[in-house]
Design a protein that fits this description.
The structure holds two protein chains of two kinds. Chain A is an all-beta fold. In chain A, 0% of the residues lie in helices and 48% in strands. Chain A has no helices and ten strands. In chain A, a hairpin with a 3-residue loop joins strand 5 and strand 6. In chain A, 35% of the residues are buried. The mean pLDDT of chain A is 97. Chain B is mainly beta. Helices cover 0% and strands 51% of the residues of chain B. In chain B, a hairpin with a 4-residue loop joins strand 7 and strand 8. The radius of gyration of chain B is 13 Å and the shape is globular. The model of chain B has no long low-confidence stretch (mean pLDDT 97). The chains are: A mainly beta, B mainly beta. At the A-B interface, strand 4, strand 5 and strand 9 of A face strand 5 and strand 10 of B.
Chain lengths: 107, 120
């Protein structure tokens, strides 16, 4: 099975900061990677699919890049609503593994 | 409006069984693949199972293979997860999630989740 890792596990940032989260796959997944945002007690929300495609309705301050085994999620200017946990997920193989998550909290 | 409503969660003893249901509305259910995803208390997301729109393709996480069975009834706009031989580590909120299309794609709509607690 493909394993996913994320770094950092926790990130402290301020409103207006540029934030970057990294996701790595244990083997190539081409561009079959998604990013989700989850807030406490809520279901996850899809932000990015196919590594860099922005889901409808998601603010343009979110962007994704990468291919193969290394991917990044960037928030260009962190807003108060963005403090949450972010997960990557691969959907290349028959097992759609999530990464362990990155919590973005207030500095 | 797309809606996914899970039901069937509850308290069950180790070794027991439970059947989760997900009622879908607001879209053509038979045109979309579906997933079950779970989240243990205070932990991250874990993908559990996938079923294609026609039920022809089914995948399971290794952690549930042989114990859980995913199914769907397109006539009833419903998704199911039969969970047998339940273990303590199956305790989690279980989410029903719609894939973006009939293909294996990310989940663009999620239910509110149903809590399954496995404990003696």
């Amino acid at each position: 099975d493909i394993q996913m890792t994320q770094s950092p596990s926790t990130l402290s940032a301020s409103v207006g900061d540029r934030v970057t989260i990294t996701c790595r796959a244990s083997q190539s997944i081409s561009s079959w990677l998604a990013w989700y945002q989850q807030k406490p007690g809520k279901a996850p929300k899809l932000l990015i699919y196919k590594a860099s495609s922005l889901e409808s309705g998601v603010p343009s301050r979110f962007s994704g890049s990468g291919s193969g085994t290394e991917f990044t999620l960037t928030i260009s200017s962190l807003q108060p609503d963005d403090f949450a946990t972010y997960y990557c997920q691969q959907y290349n193989s028959y097992s759609f593994t999530f990464g362990p998550g990155t919590k973005v909290d207030i500095k | 409006e797309v809606q996914l409503v899970e039901s069937g969660g509850g308290l069950v003893q180790p070794g027991g069984s439970l059947r989760l249901s997900c009622a879908a509305s607001g879209f053509t259910f038979s045109s979309y693949s579906m997933n079950w995803v779970r989240q243990a208390p205070g932990k991250g997301l874990e993908w559990v199972s996938y079923i294609s729109s026609s039920s022809s393709t089914i995948y399971y996480a290794d952690s549930v293979k042989g114990r859980f069975t995913i199914s769907r009834d397109n006539a009833k706009n419903s998704l199911y997860l039969q969970m047998n031989s339940l273990r303590d580590e199956d305790t989690a909120v279980y989410y029903c999630a719609r894939a973006q299309s009939w293909e294996p794609t990310p989940a663009d709509y999620w239910g509110q989740g149903t809590l399954v607690t496995v404990s003696s």
